[in-house]
Design brief:
The complex is a heterodimer. Helices cover 73% and strands 0% of the residues of chain A. Chain A has four helices and no strands. Chain A starts with 6 loop residues before the first helix and ends with a helix. Chain B folds into two domains: 171 residues, no CATH class; 51 residues. Chain B is globular, with a radius of gyration of 19 Å. Classes of the chains: A mainly alpha, B mainly alpha. At the A-B interface, helix 1, helix 2, helix 3 and helix 4 of A face helix 1, helix 2, helix 3, helix 4 and helix 5 of B.
Chain lengths: 113, 223
């Protein structure tokens, strides 16, 4: 079943579209009734944030594709450097992203990969 | 249309197109996922799930956990766009599909400047065209990526995690959010190596609960 052409679309519709939009639909209907500072919601947000953070470190430590040829320390340096620049230079995402890019591509060219 | 949210999203989705190709997704799958899911964390989690052959139930749970933040964001926006007695529920359900971090931040900044009647039509037009443009750019990036020099392609790959690190930190208002982010980054590789498959769920549940309990103790003591 997992090898058929339509299986990824079932995954996208059920595990992607519905699993994501269900929260948006609940948000519409709850419309402010659930308190945003409620303890249950704080815990759920923590779980979701930790999960997405896990995605971040997986992408940097265990990448697929062209990034596989880069040394792990360079990818970590790009991530950490980008975040430090974001924090120090006015919390602008674009600054963090550009700094990380300069570190990665600069290191890539210097190492002659 | 050439606004900062558009530029950031296009750049992030160009980076995602590289991830999608690297993970073995077809062009059509990538485009359907971008337009239909429209939340980059969910899309990245789902891409990982499809490429590793994860079952549909654990994949749906992982994606639902990654997108749970969309619920309070949607809730916070509803009072701003709703015209009591006039706005239809289906209109709110339609625009809710476009609630994602970048567009939401833009909406919360700019919608209050508009008259109440104009807010929903404005957001519907802004976010629909934003999603359409970004999806087109994603498709172009997917097709062109072969011709890019390797350092540039690598730079686009690294864009997604760096964009997430910065915008996730920017979106976290509570100390528990920030603690969860730090703990999740540290626990993610551990669970990936020792509990592959369900590692993201474990990272979320264990890391999130630790962050919640730690900051709750800090906030309220043992009560």
């Amino acid at each position: 079943m997992a090898d058929t052409w339509w299986w990824p679309y079932v995954m996208i519709i059920v595990a992607g579209w519905i699993a994501t939009d269900i929260w948006r639909w609940i948000g519409v209907f709850a419309g402010g009734k659930l308190r945003e500072d409620g303890e249950l919601l704080i815990w759920v947000r923590s779980v979701a944030t930790a999960l997405v953070a896990g995605v971040i470190s997986k992408l940097i430590l265990f990448p697929t594709g062209v990034l596989e040829v880069t040394p792990m320390w360079l990818r970590i340096l790009a991530g950490v450097g980008g975040f430090i620049a974001y924090m120090l230079l006015g919390k602008r995402v674009i600054v963090g992203v550009l700094t990380g890019e300069v570190i990665l591509i600069g290191g890539w060219l210097l190492l002659g990969l | 249309m050439v606004s900062l949210p558009a530029v950031i999203l296009m750049a992030a989705f160009i980076g995602y197109a590289g991830l999608a190709r690297g993970s073995g997704l077809t062009l059509t799958e990538t485009l359907v996922m971008a337009g239909l899911v429209w939340a980059l964390p969910s899309i990245v989690v789902l891409t990982g799930a499809i490429s590793t052959g994860l079952g549909i139930v654990p994949a749906a749970i992982a994606v639902a956990l990654a997108s749970v933040r969309l619920m309070p964001m949607t809730m916070a926006m509803m009072p701003m766009v709703r015209v009591p007695g006039k706005t239809k529920t289906w209109q709110l359900l339609y625009i809710s599909h476009f609630v994602a971090v970048t567009a939401w931040v833009y909406a919360m900044h700019n919608l209050p400047k508009l008259p109440r009647d104009a807010r929903l039509p404005f957001f519907a037009g802004f976010s629909s065209s934003l999603t359409f443009c970004v999806t087109c750019v994603t498709g172009a990036a997917y097709l062109l990526l072969d011709d890019l020099p390797k350092p540039v392609a690598g730079g686009l790959f690294i864009l997604t995690p760096i964009y997430f690190v910065c915008s996730l930190w920017g979106a976290s208002k509570l100390s528990s959010d920030k603690a969860a982010m730090v703990i999740g980054i540290l626990l993610g590789p551990f669970f990936y190596l020792y509990f592959p498959g369900l590692d993201l769920l474990w990272t979320g549940l264990v890391g999130g609960t630790l962050a919640y309990l730690g900051t709750r103790f800090q906030r309220r003591g043992l009560s």
